[in-house]
Amino acid sequence: MPEAIVVPLPGRDGDSMRFDGFAATYAALPATGVEHGDMYLVLADKLGYVWDGAWPPEGEGIEILGVPGDPGRGYTSVVIVGNNLVFTRTDGATETVPVPALAAATGAAGAAAGSAEAASGFAGVAQGHAQAAAESAGEAASYVGQPVDGSVTTAKIVDGAVTAGKLDPALLAVLKPADGPLAQASVAYKSAAQSAGTTRLRLLTIADSTGDGYGKPGGPDDWTKTWPLKTAELLRQRLGVSGGGRGWVGASTPLEPGNYEWLPATLTPAGLALDDLTTQIGIPGSLWLQRGDGARVDEVTWTLSPGTTAVDVVTTGYGGNMIITPAAGSPITKDTAGDRVVTRVTNPGATVNIHGAEGVGFAILGIVEYVGDDVRGVTQWNLSRGAMAAHECAAWLDEEDMSLSPMIGAYSPHVALVCLGANDYDRGRTPAQLQTALAAIHATITTASPGTEVVFIIRSLDDDPGQGTTWTAYVDAIAGVATETGGHVLDLRPTVPNDAPELYLGDGVHYTEAGNIVIAQTVAEFLSVVVAVELADVAGLPQELSRKADLDNNGKVLAAQIPAEALTEFLTPVPASQAAMLALDGQRGDWTLRSDLGTEWVLIGEPSSVLANWRERTTPASPVSSVNGRTGAVDTSSADITDSGAAGRALMKAATSADARMAIGAGTSNLAVGAGAGDAMAGNRTAGGIGGVAHVSGQAGLTAGIYTEAQYAALSAAVKNAWGFIAVVVP
After folding, report:
1. Helix residue ranges per DSSP H, 195-281
2. What CA–CA distance (Å, rounded) separates 626 from 624?
3. 537 burial class (0-12, 13-18, 19+ CB within 10 angstroms)?
4. For 280-294, what is each residue's pLDDT tens digit?
5. How far, in Å, CA of 93 to CA of 488, rounded?
6. Integer-rounded Cα radius of gyration of the chain
7. Which among 467, 371, 381, 354 is positioned nearest to 421, based on CA atoms?
8. Which of 36, 89, 213, 215 is within CB 3.0–4.6 Å of 510 for a Cys-Cys bond?
9. pLDDT tens-digit map of 385-394
10. C-beta separation of 352 from 326 below 8 A
11. In whole angstroms, what is the distance from residue 26 CA to residue 41 CA?
12. Going by DSSP bridges, is the β-strand pair 599-603/47-50 parallel, antiparallel, or unpaired?
């Protein structure tokens, strides 16, 4: 059998996983128009379903799960420490990157300036430049550039003296993050954004279905998930302001409710027709309500965001009462007469309801919801409407009977975001016509609200072969009108390209929730402002700082601020004279010993070179100077009592009562008076005594039992021995 030669033949490269379509839910998977092997991703359960003549049962799709990536890490702050950049990671760890350009910044002044920069400018890194802060340590190290002239110091970085010629611009972006393009171009906008902590930054968005959350299935499922409202949320985070409501909320969806995954309010009676006023007054989602008209909706109830602090109800009417009923508080009955009448409801609770009295009709334009941003923060009015072309919006703004222009004037936004043109392209209007319409929109907005910065937003869009020109020509028209009017341009095409299917619904035009998020991030970056942290904005910090001690030019605590319990030290070398003591360098409270005097000296003032600032410690006088001529720790004994005799010293040294009796010659007597053998005899004899000691006659004593015959005999013998004779006691 001949040997076979095995030749490995490389196959063609395989494709990565590819989806042929997307569906919001399993029920939304298409039943027609699919081919064998097509895979659709269901967003609700995140499973891939493959068509083989029918879809697999719900829940039995393919789990889309890649290889787990490395754990992510972000950076919360960057500070200059000595010659290094210290990056603090989100897990609490730090990474240090040496920066040769900072080698000169080693003095105390430079360190203090670096700390000030960390406390102010780097708050912007933490709040508004998360992407820059999320660079890895390796990437950050690559930012380090050598100074051209060797003059880079921390102080120069702080005061802005460092230029791109002295330090790598990428490093500067980390050290001092730049404002977004709009803040760089408009001082007025930057000031308004930086003041958002005390006043309101007001945003307005006018767009087509690009901005109104259009798309069912697959579009945003809540008004807050449209990119205009997500932009406001991101700006609040970057500017460091809390709270923030939904801003403008219509009574109904901009187009028919069936086109949206979200509903702004509950309309009753359910199932009735809507009397939409959008094309009559120019306010998307506005309705005519008339109580008693059995064919149309006549009541609206908004469910409010948690923590809502106030609601402005905006109406237009011709007379007759309307009733506004908040969940918390009493109903408000008010005449409907007036155009664009604003009724403020504070602390409304969870809901607010509005309807007219029986037979009364009026227009409900919408509400403005605040969650703390009725005074300060960021408020967004999203007045976008699907299917709107630029020339239609221009007409609504210009028409005197419309409410759109007066509403914008009353709101006075700092920024108007305008994203229009896709419907003009779709309808075959020329680039020149689009440019004319956008110029009119700019003129009307800035006339109604002088000072408003208008930003024209360019979206991605596929060229339509059926049109006589490309979308690029319309892009040029939008950029041209911005140049012509002094407006601004934000091009979304680099971040939201039309070849990123996860950002678009199946029609390739309208955005998924992910697409709205990416747009919001791009717009927020364009509007971003670096905000320095003011001490007054840090809760409790001013009060804490007011209690701190101050330092003098030598870095020492001021003498007047040293507390009584301040630490003191013993000053050396021990001085042997006054001159040596005055040469010591000390502070109030320090002390030393004078070896020539044997006394302690304490500094009661400064400087220590002045004798008046020293005080000698004295001890109180004592009446005892010595014991038996001895000083110091003296132990005494009975021998030290020089005026006592031997018996007295023996008595002082007696350890027991027996020793004491022996010392005084009492023998074995216990010295108690009584009739016992060891007792002393009572001295109660009154006559015939011996030596003045009274006694009784012998016989009487025997008879009375004072003593026994044996005692009597003993007594007689004792007397005989003592005196040399015996006394005969006659009874």
Report:
1. 227-239, 278-281
2. 6
3. middle
4. 999 999 999 999 888
5. 41
6. 51
7. 467
8. 215
9. 999 999 999 9
10. yes
11. 9
12. unpaired
